[in-house]
Amino acid sequence: MELDLNVLRPQERASLQLRLLYEQEGFRKYHMGRFEEYGLYQENRRFLSSEQVITFTDLDGRLLALKPDVTLSIAKNAQVGPGGCGRYYYQENVYRPSQESHTFREISQMGLECIGAVDDAAAAQVVSLALRSLALTGRDFVLEISHMGFVTGLFDAVGAQEAVRPRLLTCIRDKNVHELRKAAEAAGLSRQGTDALCRLGTLAGPWQEVLAAAEVLALNAAMGAALEELRGLCRALEELRGLCRALEDQGQTDHWKLDFSLVNDMEYYNGLVLQGYLAGAPRAVLRGGQYDPLAEQFRPGARAIGFALYLDELDRLSDAAAEPAGPVMLNVALPKGRLGDKVYDLLAGVGYGCPENYADTRKLVVENRKAGIRYFLVKPSDVAIYVEHGAADIGIVGKDILAESGADVYELLDTGLGRCRMCVAGPKDFTEDQSRALRVATKFGNIAKRYYAAQGRDIDIIQLNGSIELAPILGLSDVIVDIVETGTTLRENDLKVLTEFMPISARFIANRASYQFKHQEIEALLGRLKEVTEA
Fold first, then answer.
1. What digits encode the pLDDT tens for the residues 66-86?
2. In a 3-state reduction of DSSP, which class is residue 485?
3. How far is CA 337 from CA 104, 342, 363, 532, in A?
4. pTM for this entry
5. How many other β-carbons are positioned within 10 Å of the β-carbon of residue 412?
6. Concatenated DSSP letters for 236-291?
7. I need a surface site. Which of 124, 180, 487, 535 has the fewest CB within 10 A?
8. Interval 37-56 mean pLDDT
């Protein structure tokens, strides 16, 4: 009797196919226990995605942890002889904190690692296997490839200090050019250096075109070496295309691209960086890259490269609603209320209006199929959530809501609508008592925590949802953190702005996966908006 793989769930089917693929390519299965000595993670916490780890004391008194990572265990325990290259694959569950649920969740991963004497051929094999792994799912996919050496080389060339690099990296990763420019200027970078950083976001697409454009930007030997490595990799992938039926059938060159705005932690990744998307999944399902600094912790001079495929996302795909047949539609999360009216007028003014006026109907979804646009009317505080989770492709949201939610989205444009500022305000005669924790009333708890943490100030958050100004009047708090537009309410209640620390306006955001598969449509809309907002 033949085994019918179609009766299996996507995660089960993929794991069987991937195991066969990896073993055929010479990778050996690596298995680790559910628990690991906590000391391993404590000593190498800078290589973890989060320092939060579930720990417990074993019966013999040892402090153990539920594994938050597999790569660290392989890097430590891999049996690799001098001059050899260890090839391992794994299927394991890891336990990491979830920003969404504010608890730990179990994540099913399948991936592979090359550790030791990793040469260009081994790196090309790993990237090729990342492509083939995505192709085996049977869905449309995109693999982004970048190189941290090019980005860190550019930081060196423009004189970016170590302290500001994490902020610059975040802006680059989010394709947030408007705030990248502000951050670079605030860091004292020259106009030429700032322009060079802002050009990273434009270096995305087919490898020949991107490398040609990047050559002009290569200002030092590190950047040149990164481009040469990428060129060799891309040529190797082209040669491997004809050797792999799965990629040939899928049209390999249409499914991978270079994108220098793909950046990651500089302490972990030092070379190639990979990120893979599947159509229908709201976030990346594959992540990886070159992590020599971790490998060298256990084997001086060793190199390492690998990736992980998140199997949980494959099962979610089977439950996801399919896009209706017909022309590509951009799904827009439109905030209800005054800001939503301004946003709709702006979009309608550049050709994305609807025949049916959403203000005259109780419908929550209105569309214009001819313009390729569909609007979802949602609460303003929910816009970023709809976009992050892929229910909407794009949205317009206030920077306050975006910063408070921490949504993992691209921030593509500052529309300039709804300008105001986030402030600390208090009584006119307020004098801060440094001998105790500052009591702060706000509905923006995360923003307030980050602001005061940067100053090293101890605070007590008092979470409120309305009439924030009343808190210091009644002695409930010392100060408030809130949005200020005109300041009239503050003045009428004998309060004043003590500090302004964040400009607020409506931002155009996009789901990271939607940006890959609806790139042309999103960029067309974005281009029209820029013509109006930057005029």
1. 888 888 888 888 888 888 899
2. coil
3. 36, 9, 15, 22
4. 0.90
5. 23
6. HHHHHHTT-HHHHHHTGGGSEEEETT----TTT--SEEEEEEETT-SS-SEEEEE-
7. 535
8. 82
